[in-house]
Amino acid sequence: MIPTSPVLGTENQSPYQVDSRKEIILLLRSLQENKQLINMIIHDGNEVIITAILKVDDDNNNIIFDCASTESANQRLIEAPRVYFEAALNKIGIQFSSSSVSRCNFMGSPSLCCTIPSSLIRLQRREYYRINTPHTHPLICVVNVPEENGGGKINLPLVDISCGGVAMLDDQRVLNVDFGTLYNDCKIDLPGIGLVNITLQVRNSQNLLLMNHKTSRRIGFQFIDLSKTMMAQIQKLITKIERERNSRQSGMN
């Protein structure tokens, strides 16, 4: 999953700003060539539409993107006063924005485009490196739903994990996602570690429109009072997942 922040520019990121056009185009083309997914964020971070770069057109000063999966989503992007773009490239976050997304045509198909940004943010956060969890054998978190929200337990798949927290998908939008909401006595069965009891706190949420036309909600949680021993075990798990993934990718090359 792509690393996300509530809104680009809400923190002091000037040390990470890239102003060289040559370097900006190189980074954008790397996103294109590696087929990295791009988050297009509108409505103050409340809506995320996932796309990919089709072409970086240096001659015409344009980036061409795949359309959203619905016409209404395309229209919302075009009408938005500003669209924020976020992606990940080799563990580094790439962020930029545009005040004008428009329709265009690429190889006979409707597409979206915006001008190549004059600057972007290249941001590497090392404190809690997140890694996407496996899709083939997804990790599941059992979340206790408070009585005021209907009670009971629900199983949600993890999107990513770090020593600082997890992100999950709540397709049915059951959970209260108000910032700071606590979920106590949650359980995750982690490979090589076993069943872990954790307390989770909501830090952010975003509605997603996926490329397969489905909608979902991504919720970012922070671990509360996680022991140093458990943090070390989670770090080992992250390293193991990354090693196995790199090994598979090397085998395919």
UniProtKB/TrEMBL annotation:
GO MF entries: cyclic-di-GMP binding
Keyword terms: Bacterial flagellum, c-di-GMP, Cell projection, Cilium, Flagellum, Nucleotide-binding
Cellular localization per UniProt: Bacterial flagellum basal body
Domain PilZ: 124-239
Organism superkingdom: Bacteria
Entry GO terms, CC: bacterial-type flagellum basal body
Residue intervals of the Type III secretion system flagellar brake protein YcgR PilZN domain: 16-122
Keyword hit for Secreted: no
GO biological process terms on file: bacterial-type flagellum-dependent cell motility; regulation of bacterial-type flagellum-dependent cell motility by regulation of motor speed
InterPro entries per the UniProt record, alphabetical: PilZ_domain, Split_barrel_FMN-bd, T3SS_YcgR, T3SS_YcgR_PilZN
Assembly mode: Monomer. Interacts with the flagellar basal bodies.
Protein role: Acts as a flagellar brake, regulating swimming and swarming in a bis-(3'-5') cyclic diguanylic acid (c-di-GMP)-dependent manner. Binds 1 c-di-GMP dimer per subunit. Increasing levels of c-di-GMP lead to decreased motility.
HAMAP family, alphabetized: YcgR
Recorded family membership: Belongs to the YcgR family.
Name listed for the protein in its UniProt record: Flagellar brake protein YcgR
